[in-house]
Amino acid sequence: MCCGPCSLYPLKELYQSEFNVIGYFHNPNIHPEEEFNKRVESVRKLASLMEQEVIIDDSYDVAPFFDGIKGTNKKEVPKEERCAHCYAIRFDKTAEKALEIGADAFTSSLLYSRYQDHEQILGAAEEASKNFGVEFFYEDFRPGWGEGIGLSREMGLYRQKYCGCVFSYIERNLHKKKGVSGKPTNKDI
């Protein structure tokens, strides 16, 4: 689970399947820590409202994200590279947790977002699946984008304004200052 709002529609869809769903939140590279805590609380609220079992890793440690990033500023680190690294870190932990709890498969709420790179997500998920011996279940949850936004508003879930890492935080604030349109807003995410 990347956050509460993006998890809502995938959970709803998975409930209608044959799966017994257990949520797992591991999202260590959210910046700043205050934002991370808001997202953890949003996942807790969603879990309570949906009576959903969720395992939450609420440890805040951005070091693994930066350890694998080359360069020191957003101009030196291509978005594709940093996102691929973020996906790999998160899917490795998710597949490891799935193996630990005896799950048959894992999936991701990242597959709900229109702003995430599905090919990169699939690559990272398939690699984690292979490394940990747990099947990756793919479903494109993007068709439920509008429905998920509406439901998250009805539930009063915290809705973030950027993907999460320090680079997306900087990009969002730069676009906000310049008044650039066409980027995701709080209404979109």
Structural notes for this entry:
The protein is mainly alpha-helical. It has helices spanning 4-15, 33-50, 63-67, 79-101, 118-132, 145-155, 166-178; strands at residues 23-25, 54-56, 105-106, 135-136. Strands 1-2 form a two-stranded parallel sheet. The two termini are 14 Å apart.
What's the SSE blueprint?
Blueprint: H1 4-15, E1 23-25, H2 33-50, E2 54-56, H3 63-67, H4 79-101, E3 105-106, H5 118-132, E4 135-136, H6 145-155, H7 166-178
Helix pairs in contact: 1-2, 1-6, 4-5
What's this, in brief?
It is built from 7 helices and 4 strands; from the N terminus they run αβαβααβαβαα. The protein is mostly helical and 189 residues long. The protein has a two-stranded parallel ribbon with strand order 1-2.
Properties at a glance:
disordered C terminus; 189 residues; 7 helices; two-stranded parallel ribbon; two-stranded parallel sheet; single chain; mainly alpha
Helix content: 40-55%
Assembly level: single chain
Q: How many β-strand stretches?
A: 4
Order of helices and strands: HEHEHHEHEHH
Structural class of the helix and strand makeup? mainly alpha
Approximately how much beta-strand content do the residues carry? 5-15%
Q: Give the strand order, joined by hyphens, for the main sheet.
A: 1-2
Sheet having the most strands:
2 strands, parallel
Span between N and C termini?
Answer: 14 Å
